[in-house]
UniProtKB/TrEMBL annotation, chains A, B, C:
The lineage of its organism: Bacteria, Pseudomonadati, Bacteroidota, Flavobacteriia, Flavobacteriales. It comes from Maribacter caenipelagi. GO terms for cellular component: plasma membrane. The keyword Transmembrane applies. This is Putative membrane protein YeiH. It is a multi-pass membrane protein. Belongs to the UPF0126 family. It is found in: Cell membrane.
Amino acid sequence: MFYFIIDILGTIAFAISGVLVAMDKRLDAFGVFIIAFVTAVGGGTLRDLLIGIKPVGWLNAPMHLLIIVITVLLAIIFVKQLKYVRKSLFLFDTIGIGLYTMVGVEKGLAADLPPVMCIALGTITACFGGVIRDILCNEIPVIFRKEIYATVCILGGLVYFLLIQFPIQNTIAYSMAIVTIIIMRILAVRFKISLPNIYREKT
Amino acid sequence: MFYFIIDILGTIAFAISGVLVAMDKRLDAFGVFIIAFVTAVGGGTLRDLLIGIKPVGWLNAPMHLLIIVITVLLAIIFVKQLKYVRKSLFLFDTIGIGLYTMVGVEKGLAADLPPVMCIALGTITACFGGVIRDILCNEIPVIFRKEIYATVCILGGLVYFLLIQFPIQNTIAYSMAIVTIIIMRILAVRFKISLPNIYREKT
Amino acid sequence: MFYFIIDILGTIAFAISGVLVAMDKRLDAFGVFIIAFVTAVGGGTLRDLLIGIKPVGWLNAPMHLLIIVITVLLAIIFVKQLKYVRKSLFLFDTIGIGLYTMVGVEKGLAADLPPVMCIALGTITACFGGVIRDILCNEIPVIFRKEIYATVCILGGLVYFLLIQFPIQNTIAYSMAIVTIIIMRILAVRFKISLPNIYREKT
């Protein structure tokens, strides 16, 4: 139940981020909906395709579709008011990223893949909806330029695989990895931590 | 046989739309061919990937490949004359969209997916070749900005699922859905119907 | 063993080409890594998805991932020195293209696909990593505009299917196709051969 609520809140936060990018590009209602949908389910879809899970998850999740439709309608109507809930959105988004990373890690484990690939799949689940969103909107994905949440997902995955080396329950390791991702992301945004600059000249 | 002819005409119309966009971007012959090919088969390919049909359809359809190769060659040679057949092209394109929508719906039904997802797959089949075409040409997909044919596909799918609630033959419902899509699209283009504007300020 | 070394050298050359494009766009370290990774494994991934091989190859190749990580780190550090090894890189890249084309052809044969589709899959394996790289970097793929290596891959595939009509060993036909691709590409680059211009007006 708890898991279910996080999933819904994360889906809503992801969909809203899609609506904002799409409206910025002045897409029509259909375009806004597709971008919101892709942002919310794109990462999981790419993961399912890579692993070979068929059909991809969302084809059997009409409720997610419904939630995204409602979210898009409300977001379009109340777009001006969205700024007042920005903090809540950031929180849902961050919780969603933590959860989705571990969902991806789990799917990788279920497919008997090596740990490093499970972490990759977790990161793809959490981050590549945003990548597809940006590609469809004709932008270089923001995650490749300045956002750091991919790094946070990778670290969270590492924490999980470290913890399960110790005699602790799987669900505890799982939850601690999610919490690690959430805390690290909040700290990174608060203290404006980004990846070290790899360019010598000034940008 | 009838079905077969529509499929070929639709493929040709889709491929030509790809050629026109690609030549507008001044791609070389290989680029023009790939864009034409992707426009023609991209929607069905994405659908097959999402459902998990393997291999994707076109890998077993060398004839489609041949038709697209010939279409591209002719379209490059007679590009200046293409404007004289614009109305025929629009008609083939529209018939193709109607047919492909229902092909996608059928594949979804064959995979035991819920009606709303079958409609989604129908729309993807008919419309996402054009989306991939625009992405490869570095444009925001035209269907997200002003074209309305996705909406028409969704409505056509709805008509089908409404009709099969009644005691009528499946093939009749199927054909009526296709005809609905064709008529709605022609009307929409003729009367310049578009989705309601979702932006308050002027664009 | 020989095959293995070529594969590694090709992966390194592809990854470096990704690093160069990504650094040109001033992506951050994570972005540079993803672009390098996608350039190296994207073509094979797309091929595996289209055929329905699951999971896609790289999910079971942690060594490739490691090699790409090391390549990216070294390439970022020694980016200024890369120009001194440009000729070696071109050679590795060309050998990689030859090899990957035939790997793709083989996977197509193993999936019982018609020769023309095997050639298509070979070309996709060799060339579409670069296509995805360019899309993620918000560029029209260079291969659609001026590079000719797709054509070279197609010709190499044709050579293979011609040769196996004759009573010669499969491995010989395989190797000769690879050598054909390598020689043709070197000649094409040396003599600046490109596809015939399809536009009447000057560009």
